[in-house]
Automatic annotation (TrEMBL):
The lineage of its organism: Eukaryota, Metazoa, Ecdysozoa, Arthropoda, Hexapoda. The keyword Repeat applies. InterPro entries: ATG16, WD40/YVTN_repeat-like_dom_sf, WD40_PAC1, WD40_repeat_CS, WD40_repeat_dom_sf, WD40_rpt. It comes from Euphydryas editha. GO terms for biological process: autophagosome assembly. This is Autophagy-related protein 16-1.
């Protein structure tokens, strides 16, 4: 379901439907370690440059925090629905979690607390793997919805900034251009749309 590099180009961590996180050595093409999460992992991020801290989002409504030097997760945050995706702010201080209770949660990782929740009466998460993303400067976030729209909120004010509608099926993922306000969205019908500068 998810894969990320672990601080160096030869190590990757994967999160799987089989309720495990696995660390892979790309040189030997072998799994070097398996962590048993106890729940299907829908997404994961690494929160430091060295790749020693892993954050994983799960089917059992938990976000788990891992130190790769230990066997068990260090702690967790319980949410109100299945976690469909995670995204880390550029400064690694904030975590975005898309949740099946039709909310996006903004978590301050310095305090491990939810600092803002984003929702709207017409916003419904479209699937168990819907992907939300921070904008390039962290001031906006975007996520696709079941109604075929991409929703864009201000992370600072919590205000819904835009509802971008051009899809005819659920939008499953969004991605921002790293330097501009361009946003790409894709839907279940395999259609991609690139939105102008936001």
């Amino acid at each position: 379901m998810a894969a990320k590099f672990l601080g160096e180009p030869t190590k990757v961590i994967t999160g799987s439907h089989d309720r495990t996180l696995k660390i892979w050595d790309l040189r030997s093409r072998m799994c070097t370690e398996t962590k048993f999460a106890g729940s299907s992992c829908n997404d994961l991020v690494t929160s430091d440059g060295a790749g020693s801290t892993i954050i994983s989002g799960h089917f059992d409504k938990r976000i788990r925090f891992w130190d790769i030097r230990t066997e068990m997760s260090a702690n967790h945050i319980m949410l109100q629905g299945k976690v469909t995706s995670l995204d880390l702010s550029r400064d690694s201080n904030y975590l975005l979690a898309c949740v099946r209770d039709d909310t996006i949660q903004l978590i301050d990782l310095r305090m491990n607390t939810i600092v803002r929740s984003f929702s709207h009466e017409s916003f419904k998460v479209g699937c168990d793997w819907s992907r939300a993303a921070f904008g390039p400067m962290g001031r906006l976030l975007a996520v696709g919805a079941a109604d075929g729209a991409a929703y864009v909120w201000s992370t600072h004010s919590g205000k819904l900034e835009a509802v971008l509608k051009d899809h005819t099926s659920a939008v499953t993922a969004v991605s921002w251009h790293p330097q501009s306000g361009l946003l790409a969205s894709v839907d279940r019908s395999k259609r991609a749309v690139v939105w102008g500068d936001l």
